[in-house]
Amino acid sequence: xxxxxxxxxxxxxxxxxxxxxxxxxxxxxxxxxxxxxxxxxxxxxxxxxxxxxxxxxxxxxxxxxxxxxxxxxxxxxxxxxxxxxxxxxxxxxxxxxxxxxxxxxxxxxxxxxxxxxxxxxxxxxxxxxxxxxxxxxxxxxxxxxxxxxxxxxxxxxxxxxxxxxxxxxxxxxxxxxxxxxxxxxxxxxxxxxxxxxxxxxxxxxxxxxxxxxxxxxxxxxxxxxxxxxxxxxxxxxxxxxxxxxxxxxxxxxxxxxxxxxxxxxxxxxxxxxxxxxxxxxxxxxxxxxxxxxxxxxxxxxxxxxxxxx
Length: 309
Prior knowledge:
Number of strands: 10
Number of helices: 6
Order of helices and strands: EEHEEEEEEEHHHEHH
CATH architecture of the largest domain: 2-Layer Sandwich
CATH superfamily of the largest domain: Band 7 domain
Strand order of the largest sheet: 5-4-7
Strand content: 15-25%
Number of domains: 4
Mean pLDDT: 79
């Protein structure tokens, strides 16, 4: 059989180690399509917003959380639009030229619809906070502190409330157009100059000593009032008892007086009493009893006692 070089490859394309170039190209195309398909799908996490640029131009419409089919040529910047807290410590001068340290917490979040403006004018979210929020906050705190007469006035509740309200109003007015929404301003701590702190502590100690003295005086006054009340109650009880004794004595005297009057007007009562006495005496066998009538020299028997003259 005659062998002709190249006859076995007749009708087929070129190959590389048994794999045709056409097959390699097909695989590359499929890979590119798959990669492009992934690049066309973008997922934005919850609480975030996406901003895209195409050839350096920022797209005005942001992408909210969810799944999106997009241009694979987009370049993405993702912003966290959830609520956050920024804490700031500032030295605040009052009208008495004293510096008071004030710790403030700012609750804020980025405005979703203004994320493209933030990217175009400022950059990232951290850059927006450092460029807009922090400098303005420090400036407002210092300016508001100048309206406070004395450093110790920072501890007054009305002063703190006024500070929080004024700072919030200023920040909202300034930061809203920048794409930052401020929700609350909270004063966390206030540190006065050391010598004022010592003076306040000494004043509190004096006030506490006065309060203790007042409490002791009130306790003593209460005890004295209780003693007086008890003495008054005892006096009233003694008076009531004396009144009862006096009433009983008066009743007894009246009874005796009435009895004496009755005896004086009725001699038979004396005879009756004598008979009762003789009755008791008669119980003694050794007793001898004689009855003498004043009008007769001879003794009278008992039966004649009480007979009329």
